[in-house]
Design a protein that fits this description.
Length: 506
């Protein structure tokens, strides 16, 4: 097979949106073409449905409003690409460039493994390196023991990933459709290896296979029998696996339609849902390229969506002062309820039908101020170990009259924001820290801005976000902890949000 010529569109059809100091980028991190033997492309002669053309795959991604894309062909097992197909795709991606007319391309492949005849999960491997650094990459470089999917134990998986990393630079290995039983789901015990903390920072919570959040979700349960030990909540369970993982989404399309969340996969008809996408949230004005996308996933600056690019920010506060945001670690003392503030563009307020903050033993519906802000708190009785936010969207209103044929039981759409973990403050000994310098009592996240570096001192901007006096010279705030009613009163008195609106995509 000879590589196709990908003719790039003159205009950029990306979905990026600026809001609340962030730029939000939409992408598909899990898509297949006919290069995978269980996939199909209309121009490769292996399509059994309504496939897109491999030569048009980047244009298809742009037409679906994507800002970034990862083609993740199978490279081991019975569905694996062959050497010629893998080389053709790599050559085409190299020719297109790392940013193909506004579409950031993240190199990736899909692998799966078995131990003693039992499948332990499907995972995608992603690369951070430049095209020049990956120019000599071959199929054998990304296979574990050739096409073989059998390993002697979990450690062999991380040994393999480290070997790939040693040759090709930073990589990450992320589990997808983890809640599935029957072997395709994830055995989280394999992620208890200490190396997985760095090498596997996120999980795919939603795809064409359905919702892996939990076994009885409000939205699109996985189509195979759900295994409660393999869900996202089982991975996070502080009494069990206690894994620190962010959330991403992907379509897992097999008929060359990346980003096609409002259509069914015609090549793999047993996949009943439209699939998910990933939103990467970067500071407004920051460079967005392959490295920035990779780093956003690695730092949990992402959230999964069943389709809509609804910009969302979350701030976690103590006494009105921000201690962190999306996916960040939080320093929270015992007995201090954590206040949660979620923002969406005010123009989208009527499209949001619910915002819930979720903790291991708590689920709290946040209260709307009617202007795109939602407020509440967790930890009144029991300090949570982690928290994350789930947003419910009226999909019928979002997608308009034609709706979205995503296979769901209703028109609801969901977003899952990456979790944040809570840690106790380090004791202030008044002596020296582990560097030998005097201990000032300043700890990570002593910051008034969730986007500030974690070692930044708390700036004073005379905005206590509550009714109090703020002395900017001494940086003293007299804010006490607010209940929900106080937070709501604050919200109602807030100045209107100023932002640019993008019309929801059809």
């Amino acid at each position: 097979m000879s590589p196709p010529v990908w003719v790039l569109a003159a205009s950029i059809a990306g979905a990026r949106v600026d809001f609340d100091g962030k730029t939000f980028y939409l992408g598909d991190l899990h898509a297949h073409t006919g290069i995978s033997t269980d996939g199909g492309s209309s121009d490769l002669g292996n399509c059994s449905g309504e496939c897109g053309a491999f030569a048009d795959v980047l244009d298809i991604a742009r037409d679906n409003g994507l800002d970034f894309l990862a083609l993740t062909e199978h490279v081991n097992g019975t569905q694996a690409a062959d050497e010629a197909g893998f080389a053709m795709e790599l050559a085409a991606l190299q020719a297109a460039g790392e940013i193909a007319d506004g579409l950031v391309l993240l190199p990736g492949v899909e692998l799966w493994w078995m131990i003693d005849g039992d499948m332990i999960g499907h995972k995608n491997l992603y690369f951070r390196a430049s095209n020049a650094e990956l120019a000599e990459l071959t199929l054998e470089d990304v296979r574990f023991d050739g096409e073989n999917e059998t390993v002697t134990g979990c450690a062999a998986i991380w040994d393999f990933v480290e070997q790939v990393e040693a040759r090709w630079g930073p990589v990450m290995l992320l589990a997808h459709h983890p809640a599935m039983s029957g072997g395709m789901g994830t055995d989280w015990s394999c992620h208890l290896d200490p190396r997985a903390v760095r090498l596997s920072p996120s999980l795919e919570i939603y795809s064409r296979h359905g919702n892996s959040e939990e076994c009885e979700p409000e939205f699109d349960p996985v189509w195979q029998v759900c295994d409660p030990d393999r869900t996202a909540l089982a991975a996070l369970d502080p009494g069990g696996n206690a894994l620190h993982l962010g959330f991403i989404g992907g379509t897992d399309e097999h008929d060359t339609h990346p980003g096609g969340v409002c259509r069914r996969d015609t090549q793999m008809a047993q996949h009943p849902f439209g699939g998910g996408l990933t939103v990467a949230a970067l500071p407004e004005g920051a460079t967005f390229d392959r490295a920035a996308l990779y780093d956003a996933i690695a730092s949990r600056s992402t959230y999964a969506t069943s389709g809509p690019l609804l910009p969302v920010t979350v701030s976690y506060r103590l006494g009105g002062q921000v201690v962190g945001g999306l996916g960040q670690d939080l320093i929270v003392p015992e007995g201090a309820p954590l206040q949660v503030e979620v923002r969406v563009p005010a123009e989208y307020q009527d499209l949001v039908t619910g915002v819930t903050v979720i903790a291991p033993r708590e689920r709290v519906a946040l209260i709307s101020d009617g202007a795109g802000r939602y407020l509440g708190q967790v930890g009144d009785q029991d300090r949570p170990v982690w928290v994350y936010v789930r947003v419910l969207v009226d999909g019928g209103a979002w997608y308009g009259e034609d709706g979205c044929d995503d296979g769901g039981a209703d028109t609801s759409e969901y977003l899952w924001l990456s979790p944040s973990w809570l840690a106790l403050p380090e004791p202030d000994t008044g002596g020296t820290d582990d560097t030998g310098k005097p201990d000032t009592g300043t700890h990570p996240h002593d910051s008034d801005d969730s986007d500030a570096p974690h070692d930044s001192p708390a700036p004073c901007d005379c905005d206590c976000d509550c009714d109090c006096e703020c002395d900017c010279e001494s940086d003293q705030r007299g804010c006490g902890l607010l209940g929900v009613s106080g937070l709501l009163a604050l919200a109602l008195s807030a100045l209107p949000l100023v932002l640019g609106r993008r019309t929801p995509r059809a």
